[in-house]
Amino acid sequence: MKLNLITSIILIIILIASCKSKSPDPSAGIKDVDLIFKGKEIAMNAQAFLGKNLMAAIQSGGTEYAISFCSERAIELTDSVAQVSNAGIRRVSDKNRNPMNKASGSELQYIQDAKKALAASEVINPQLEVIENKTYGYYPILTNDLCIQCHGNKSTDITESTLAELNRLYPEDKATGYGVNELRGIWVVELDKIRK
Prior knowledge:
There is one protein chain. By secondary structure, the protein is α+β, with helices and mostly antiparallel strands. The chain has one domain (28-195). Helices cover 59% and strands 14% of the residues. It contains six helices and four strands. The protein has a four-stranded antiparallel beta sheet with strand order 1-4-3-2. The termini are far apart.
């Protein structure tokens, strides 16, 4: 009887100890939520800054000029937002235009999951990923009417002169065939400098 009582007490202590060690650290969750929101803010700032400059390029010289502008300046503009935000930031896609913007690994998985969510009329939530001890936030980029001028259907949405400029600057372009409110790609925000 004493042996059963002692064994029962030991088992209860082990169960209690193991439950305590498995409970999540509430402060870690809050930090992750804060990181997700900070990353989203950075991604939205980059989107707005790039969009503002793209709109100015279209107004200045038309869609063909804007394609050239994007080719030469998009990464530079994104880098300037990264510098101000103290975070790495880049755009990637499963249907990239610039070979430097090709998604890989967990980025592709997030894109596939986001497309499924969008098709099911669900909200696409941002996601944190830790890869090789670095924390990244993934944030969706959805198409709008402006995007379709260069990313829409080649036969119905993109003019011949725009298509010629796309073919000249991006001979391996995969970033067409989109409609409005489709997932064009994602912002990838490296959040380690913010976390510290």
